[in-house]
Structure of fumarate hydratase:
Amino acid sequence: MACSTCLEQSGKTVKMRKERDTFGELDVPDDRLYGAQTVRSVMNFPIGGIEERMPYPVIVAFGILKKAAAKVNTEYGLDKKIADAIIEACDDVISGKLYREGHFPLVIWQTGSGTQSNMNTNEVISNRAIQILGGKLGSKTPVHPNDHVNKSQSSNDTYPAAMHIAVAMELRDRLMPGLVALRDTLEKKSKEFEKIIKIGRTHLMDAVPLTLGQEFSGYATQLTYGIERVCTTLPRLHYLALGGTAVGTGLNTRKGFAEKCAKEIATLTGIPFETAPNKFEALAAHDSMVEVHGALNTIAVSLMKIANDIRMLASGPRCGLAELMLPENEPGSSIMPGKVNPTQCEALTMLAAQVMGNHVACTIGGSNGHFELNVFKTMMVANMYTQIFLGDGCQAFNKNCAVGIQANIAQINKIMKESLMLVTALNPHIGYDKAALIAKTAHKEGGTLKDTAIKLGILTAEQFDQWVRPEDMLGPK
């Protein structure tokens, strides 16, 4: 029942209503669909504020989960009129409408089981369903957040199920498109550059030649393997804890509930979710999340290497390697006119570093499943959400950098001619020691390999030209 208490928010008066939970009554803003348990969490966990809100994909996943449960529960006695109202309310959650309107204010830093976010979802769906049915907000009639929206469920099985749904959808819709787009571009660049011979580098020092295409083929293959690594984690990610309720036994559910919910969620998402074969594992441990996180950590390692290589190969334009030319997207300095920086490389490497740091937190969280429940759930899924920003990073890097990479052929050829490591081609003809003498003498005296070899009387000009040809140094034919 609404009361006369008012709250000043952003300069406007907000009417309040009274809602009750098992701890007593609390004032709830009358323009919000959440209830007393949500308000209590806001009061008890003032950590970080709006920027630390529970990630949007998790709330969408809860909407999908609650919708599936409501539909299945009609088979076990839930009134169809109530179920239909719950389903309609869930659609408002799934669309993002209620998240954008501020009905999900809770932060990541709460109970590690996600109980408050589960109840936030239950309260919002309950009150929205009450609105649909013409009832009074906060009355819990005719739709109760626990008895109806949370029927046959517990926070301990719904939150891990929502974690898996959210991450699986984000991997499919956000990460994979970015990875595939960048991988495909790198493969195209590999073919585009396949005839450009350049000097290789090991230990950051000059090495023997390879083609620029071969160098880029390594980058493309790293991402191909990264995509495959993610795919190998999916069977475990597709197992849902829903149906395990409090400790994994399935207390207060009905036979077949878990299987039917998983099937319904699979239909709603287009992802082949299944009920977890062992609910005790699904509640007490989140090894599958650590596994996915590990694959994403490996991808971050790959992206760090690729982006660093590209920005170093493009260093210059006059005083660096300058073998590559990157798109010029924006001014690079507020004081140095004309300066342009490899900003897309920098953004991607910073994102990769964040992912690596998050992996440590996720690993610690996964290792702290005590007895029948892991209570690091909210942190783990929030970190996972950040990891999936890798997809956004790959899209930006692909569009604003990789597609426009050009080879600076004149600079590549210049560096090639100056390299001392072409002397390696002489090993089969004159032996390692004489070849080393040529290289070291040329470096000490500032001469060329050819002139030094002739001066030392080791080779004739004709022999050098016959044996030292970069195009013949690309491996077995």
Notes: Residues 113 and 403 are 44 Å apart (CA to CA). The domain at 157-410 is CATH 1.20.200.10 (Fumarase C; Chain A, domain 2). Residues 1-9 have pLDDT under 50 and may be disordered.
